């Protein structure tokens, strides 16, 4: 039996259920195991095989993760949190020796994209529009203040004036100052079948956002957005699912983030007809997928909170 590990699949209940349902329907001799550092995460209530590894420091965690991969005979890994790739790269020699497939970026790609400054420079060098960036001295307000490395809107602030900047910038170790663009926000779910080989781009409009996650979204199969993101996919050394975030202003598209992992609201993309769960499992199993799918354009998703008990 093959084993796929979903690492820190925080609150991704819909995706975990979708993957498990696809495994059952596909006939694969395969199982999904979910590993979480938070023992109370609701994903445990839908996971058929759940493991808890507390984060008690980098080295103890790596040792426990390696032991889990070995004892559960893991064949492939999918990560949800960007920072988990740093841990995966630390185990790269062990993973190579044991033949474990990682659906995600190369280390070189991760090092460029996970850093907001180098990612912005990389996109500019490849002729893509990005929000302007500032030094502390050259700041133009309003602006977005965020860490150079980070995700999930942690320590991200909209700054209105110099007084606010002085108050907040000292809270961030390596601050990154970026133009605040007023426009329509999109997340585009992507899938690369190999490095620099995108097979799918499904845009959705972010209608209502809490933190970094879209609570209300709408599929928007705009040809210009799809073409733009496929071109970005062709310069990224990543295999599997990832997502691109951009803002449309006056007919121009500004790329403000690339997350080298499956998106937090890919539920809408799946429900609209793009089987991300099948693509992830197929490529984890070393198989090919069909990308000839019909997407329900204009489909809307609205999320809500629901308690779980265990």
Q: What would you say about this model in short?
A:
The strands form three sheets. The chain has a six-stranded antiparallel sheet. A five-stranded parallel sheet has the order 3-2-1-4-5, sandwiched between helices. The chain has a four-stranded antiparallel sheet with strand order 6-9-7-8, with helices on one face. The chain contains ten helices and 15 strands. With 310 residues, it is α/β, with parallel strands linked by helices.
Question: What features would you describe in this structure?
Answer:
The protein is an alpha/beta fold and 310 residues long. It folds into three domains: 2-103, Rossmann fold (3-Layer(aba) Sandwich); 132-179, no CATH class; 183-302, 2-Layer Sandwich (D-amino Acid Aminotransferase, Chain A, domain 1). Helices cover 30% and strands 29% of the residues. It has ten helices and 15 strands. Strands 14-13-10-11-12-15 form a six-stranded antiparallel beta sheet. Strands 3-2-1-4-5 form a five-stranded parallel beta sheet, sandwiched between helices. The chain has a four-stranded antiparallel beta sheet with strand order 6-9-7-8, with helices on one face. Helix 1 (13-26) crosses helix 10. The longest helix has 14 residues, at 13-26. It is globular, with a radius of gyration of 19 Å. The two termini are 28 Å apart. The model has no long low-confidence stretch (mean pLDDT 95).
């Amino acid at each position: 039996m093959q084993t796929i590990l979903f690492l820190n699949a925080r609150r991704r209940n819909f995706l975990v259920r979708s993957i498990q349902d696809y495994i059952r329907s596909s006939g694969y001799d395969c199982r999904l195991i979910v590993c979480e550092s938070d023992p109370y995460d609701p994903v445990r209530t839908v996971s058929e095989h759940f493991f808890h590894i507390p984060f008690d420091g980098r080295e103890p965690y790596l040792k426990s993760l390696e032991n889990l991969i070995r004892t559960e005979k893991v064949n492939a890994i999918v990560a949800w949190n960007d920072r988990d790739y740093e841990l995966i790269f630390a185990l790269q020699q062990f993973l190579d020796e044991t033949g474990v497939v990682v659906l995600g970026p190369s280390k070189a790609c991760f090092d460029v994209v996970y850093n907001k400054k180098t990612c912005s420079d990389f996109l500019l060098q490849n002729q893509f529009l990005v929000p302007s960036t500032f030094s502390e001295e050259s700041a133009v307000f309003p602006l977005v203040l965020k860490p150079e490395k980070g995700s999930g809107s942690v320590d991200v602030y909209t700054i209105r004036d110099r007084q606010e900047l002085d108050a907040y910038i000292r809270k961030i170790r390596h601050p990154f100052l970026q133009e605040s663009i007023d426009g329509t926000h999109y997340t585009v779910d992507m899938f690369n079948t190999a490095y620099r080989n995108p097979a799918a781009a499904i845009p959705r409009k972010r209608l209502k956002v809490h933190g970094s996650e879209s609570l209300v979204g709408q599929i928007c199969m705009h040809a210009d957005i799809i073409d733009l993101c496929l071109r970005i996919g062709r310069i990224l050394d990543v295999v599997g699912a990832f997502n691109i975030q951009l803002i449309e202003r006056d007919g121009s598209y500004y790329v403000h983030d690339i997350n080298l992992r499956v998106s937090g609201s890919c539920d809408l993309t799946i429900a609209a007809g793009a089987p991300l769960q099948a693509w992830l499992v197929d490529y984890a199993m070393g198989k090919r997928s069909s990308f000839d799918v019909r997407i329900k354009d204009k489909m809307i998703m609205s999320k809500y909170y629901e308690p779980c008990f265990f």
